[in-house]
Amino acid sequence: MMTVQAKETWPGALSSLAFVLALWYAAALIINLPIVPSPLAVGINIAEIFRTKIEVHVLSSLIRVLEGISISILIGVPLGFLMGYFDKINTLLSPLIYFTYPVPKIALLPVVMLLFGLGEASKLIMIVLIVIFQIIITSRDAVRSIPNETYRSLQSLGASPAQIFAEIIVPASLPEVLTATRLALGTAVSILFFTETFGTEHGMGYFIMDSWMRVNYLDMYAGIVVLSFMGFCVFALIDIAENYLCPWK
Amino acid sequence: MIEIKDLTVSYPWKNQDTLVLDNISLTINPGEIYTFIGPSGCGKSTLLYVLSGIVKDYQGSISMDGRPIDPHTQRIGLILQNYGLLPWKNVYHNALLGVKIKRDQPGLDEYRNYILRQLGIDALLDRYPKELSGGQQQRVAIARAFILKPDLLLMDEPFSALDAITREEMQELFLDIWKLNSVTTVFITHSVDEALYLGRKIVVFSPAPGSIRAVLDNPCFQLDNLRFRDEYAEMAMKLRKLLDKG
């Protein structure tokens, strides 16, 4: 099953990559200004400066994204499961979630930075603060959408709540939790970019903005391409995890 | 022995209580198959859920061998029309789910292997439910119930979603395996033919709110070439009359 999917996905991914590169190349030719360098020049630039200038930034960004997502999953998924399964917990916490979900939490960045400083902590807190809501709500709804019939066999066997969680709730919600993680990833990379423009000298956000300030467009594009590729790699990682964790899909 | 006394169940529906089962009293003898037959919506399935401990909100009393029904202490095998398999478990893990929950010895022993072989699913152990036909899924559900070695086996129209040929095959297969240890069985059906083929006793339900119209001894049980015999035609006629009686 996995190989069939992979065979179908990879040529598709390659042809869309070729399409984007062709568009970019055409735009570079037509506009013919330093603000749009050709993809070829950017590619050569990446090869030249990756080890010396980009590597350290991409690693700090990658670690921040992975940490942020992991913390959000570790807190958000159990909380969402409990809300989905126990009506009382849901009644207690739902209003809180609904009330705070629409607040643009990125606007809280100054507050978070005042409270937690300019360092790593506030960057992680921003990612978690924004991403965790999607994860809580998706996990909760995943549990609530499990049909009652699914529980019948285990109920008639006298299963304990722990057994019901392990045998039904976790595996039934896993695909949706992974989808939420994919969505959260896109959001997390955007927040990361924003927070990395303050109070740090490491991270792709810093690198891109710094190159922009220095009017080094080749480096700036190199940064954008590398950041996108980093996001793509984590995305692919989640796909592989899904194939491994949900072989029944 | 299972004793049901004055069992009444009602569901809250549109702000008022709707009576589903009305004053049911029945004694179920050990080691026999009881087929429950009645029109749709007569509460047969609700009775099954009460017996399996899923529905706990009822009036009256139910006891099994003198103790109240409780899925934690008793072993109850449940086979549902939609098979009740977990899509994320392969055949092996679905078949052994019951013994896993009851914390029995894990793995396959002689009896478990025999059941899987008898049901013809011993070569499918790595498959997931969506890779199986309906008949194969139903075999896995039956394997799970028998591997559990239940004190009570509950079946809710287990074969009604199968095509006619598969259904007759499954009925025979079920009887073959059932004869191994003759577990007390409640089998819900809406088919007169199935009720006569599988039930030593046949319990006829009235339309909603469900009550028991008659409990019949079935002389056709375990007769050879049943469907060609006079007893069968006679009993079928009798059942249909009971079911039609407004």
* Overall pLDDT confidence of chain B: 89
Radius of gyration of chain B using CA atoms only: 18 Å
Query: Can you tell me the CATH class of the largest domain in chain B?
Result: Alpha Beta
pLDDT < 50 stretches of chain A: none
Nearest-integer average pLDDT of chain A? 90
Helix and strand content put the structural class of chain A at mainly alpha
Elements of chain B, N to C (H/E): EEEHEEEHHHHEHEHEEH
Written overview of the protein:
The complex is a heterodimer of chains A (249) and B (246). The longest helix of chain A is centred in the N-terminal third of the chain and has 47 residues, at 39-85. Chain A has helices spanning 2-31, 39-85, 87-100, 109-116, 120-144, 148-156, 161-195, 204-213, 217-245. In chain A, helix 2 (39-85) runs antiparallel to helix 3, helix 2 (39-85) packs across helix 9 (217-245) and helix 8 (204-213) runs antiparallel to helix 9. Chain A is an all-alpha fold. Chain A has nine helices and no strands. Chain A folds into two domains: 1-36; 47-245, MetI-like fold. Chain B has 246 residues and is of the alpha/beta class. Chain B has helices spanning 44-51, 91-95, 97-101, 110-118, 134-147, 164-181, 192-198, 230-244; strands at 2-13, 16-28, 33-37, 59-64, 67-68, 76-79, 152-156, 184-189, 201-205, 212-217. A six-stranded mixed beta sheet of chain B has the order 6-7-8-3-9-10, sandwiched between helices. Chain B is globular, with a radius of gyration of 18 Å. The model of chain B has no long low-confidence stretch (mean pLDDT 89). The A-B interface holds A 149-150, 152-159, 163, 167-168, 171-172, 174, 246-248 and B 49, 52-54, 70-74, 76-78, 80, 82, 84, 86-90, 97-98, 101-102, 128-130, 144, 148, 154.
